[in-house]
């Protein structure tokens, strides 16, 4: 009976020993695995592409003044027709335009008016051009000074900013640009890994940056909307595991 009890104790001790050894191995393997997962590099990948604007938006404001409202209204209607004829002669048809934002100002009704006024009524009419014919807008905008010869007042109390040139095909180029930015990031990761004597593993984490549309010329403070050629840029942030 004593001998049997001793055997049980020995067997239990062996089991405990094996368990401890096994646990030690798993802990060691786990620590080693954690160390390997701990090794990673964070890099950024850049992709850029030059694109051409595919849509133009051009608000044109004309103005007429007179002491008689009906006279000012007749003048603005005549000037609007002259402007539409001018646009049509440059290949910008009526269906590419829209009448917007008719404003009538009675200067005698202004609460903070001071001093004499030249004309009581001021009428501003905006005609907005929207078209994919970029070249037609470029030529017309360069030639619009000729309207002054017809007595048309451009701007008036409003502001004529000139055409804005838009690029609307961003979704079509997004996949290729993201792939290019990711490839650029991986090249940087491979260089880091080579310098540390390792190899690039899988992606640990990835963050896609915002797409930016910039002026292609890169001149400080220039508005990209005024340029036909633009640069699309995206930056991705990638974390790659590093293997031995």
Mean pLDDT: 84
The poorly predicted ranges are 6-10, 12-36
Q: How many structurally independent domains?
A: 2
CATH-level-2 architecture of the largest domain: 2-Layer Sandwich
Summarize the structure.
This protein is α+β, with helices and mostly antiparallel strands. The protein has 4 helices and 9 strands, in the order αββαββαββαβββ.
Account of the 3D structure:
The chain contains four helices and nine strands. By secondary structure, the protein is of the alpha+beta class. The chain has two domains: 37-54 and 167-244, Translation Initiation Factor IF3 (2-Layer Sandwich); 57-162, 2-Layer Sandwich (Alpha-Beta Plaits), CATH 3.30.70. Strands 2, 3, 4, 5 and 6 form a five-stranded antiparallel β-sheet that branches. Strands 1, 7, 8 and 9 form a four-stranded antiparallel β-sheet that branches. It is elongated. The two termini are 57 Å apart. Mean pLDDT is 84; it is low at 6-10 and 12-36.
């Amino acid at each position: 009976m004593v001998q049997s009890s001793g055997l049980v104790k020995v067997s239990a001790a062996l089991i405990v020993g094996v368990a401890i050894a096994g646990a030690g191995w798993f802990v060691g393997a786990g620590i080693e695995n954690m160390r390997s997962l701990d090794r990673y590099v964070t890099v950024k990948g850049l992709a850029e592409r030059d694109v051409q604007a595919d849509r133009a938006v051009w608000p044109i404001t004309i103005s007429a003044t007179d002491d008689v409202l009906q006279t000012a209204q007749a003048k603005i209607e005549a000037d609007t027709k002259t402007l539409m004829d001018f646009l049509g002669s440059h290949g910008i048809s009526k269906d590419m335009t829209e009448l917007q934002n008719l404003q009538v100002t009675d200067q005698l009704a202004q609460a903070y008016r001071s001093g004499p006024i030249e004309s009581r009524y001021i009428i501003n009419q905006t005609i907005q051009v929207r078209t994919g014919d970029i070249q037609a807008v470029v030529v017309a905008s360069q030639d619009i000074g000729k309207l002054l010869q017809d007595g048309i007042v451009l701007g008036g109390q409003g502001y004529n900013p000139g055409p804005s040139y838009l690029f609307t095909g961003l979704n079509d180029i997004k996949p290729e640009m993201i792939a290019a930015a990711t490839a650029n990031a991986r090249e940087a990761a491979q260089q880091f890994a080579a310098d540390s004597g390792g190899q690039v593993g899988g992606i640990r984490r990835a963050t896609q940056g915002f797409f930016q549309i910039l002026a292609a010329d890169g001149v400080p403070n220039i508005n990209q909307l005024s340029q036909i050629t633009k640069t699309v840029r995206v930056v991705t942030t990638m974390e790659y595991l590093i293997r031995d």
